[in-house]
Specification:
Number of domains: 2
CATH topology of the largest domain: MetI-like fold
CATH class of the largest domain: Mainly Alpha
Radius of gyration: 24 Å
InterPro entries: MetI-like, MetI-like_sf
Order of helices and strands: HHHHHHHHHHHHHH
Distance between the termini: 34 Å
Shape: globular
Helix content: 55-70%
Organism: Paenibacillus aurantius
Structural class: mainly alpha
Protein name: Carbohydrate ABC transporter permease
Subcellular location: Cell membrane
CATH architecture of the largest domain: Orthogonal Bundle
Largest sheet: none
CATH superfamily of the largest domain: MetI-like
Pfam families: BPD_transp_1 (PF00528)
Amino acid sequence: MHRVTSGQKAFQLVNLSLLSLIALGMLLPFINVLAQSFSSSTAVTTGKVTFWPVEFTWINYQYVFSDASIWRSFAVTVYITVLGTLINLAATASMAYPVSRQEFAGRRYVVLLVLVTMVFSAPLIPNFILIKELGMMNSLWSLMIPGAISAFNFFVMRSFFMQIPGELIDSSRIDGCGETRILWNLVLPLSKPVMASLGIFYAVGHWNTFQSALYYINKPNLWPLQVKLRQMITTDDISIDPSASQFSDLAHSSPEGIKMAVIIIATVPIIMIYPFLQRHFVKGLMIGSVKA
């Protein structure tokens, strides 16, 4: 039985304390925003709120839930997150699988080309011209198609696919399976850990879409939630439904509580996904990092 030395115990204690402090430092701003979202406008504007709501109220969330523009932006964000993640995983798997097999003669050149994109990224203006010429301006496709394959995620998935025994794939070919059927019916079912891990990476990226939407989307009804939130924070543009007179004074006097409520709504859904995929997340990254 391995005996833990006093030095190892001290290291573990220091390591745990340091990581706990870092985690607390990341958590406290979120707690402050959450407390402000449940506080009255007076408490927020006077700076009385720290880590606990002052003059607890639901009025900020009632306003957000009654604002159709926020719900529309939320729906756009959910749409590009779900569909965009599916496109990412399908495209990355379709490219990583052939490159992971030894019988693919041109795999080294493909890997080299992908590696170049990690070192040299395309400038903004050529990207903008390309999106415009493809007719994707003011289209949600501009937020999903250009970044369909991430170079880093490609290498992680390729490394994972290389762990699958070649004999298993050869036996499938003997049974008459084509490459597409092998990928979708054999390889992907065995790749749930790496698919879950990369799915989180892709989903978080789509959920936080900001710059691409700012460059390529000019129609407010197609703005994702992050752009809508930015508009509210920078311009104090809080829309008011004329029929909701109980919110008019709140929106004009103190929009800060409303902004905090929108931040919480924009943050919590993607955080809630992680616990369900945590088991696959760590396993996928560990296995996918064995080979380069």
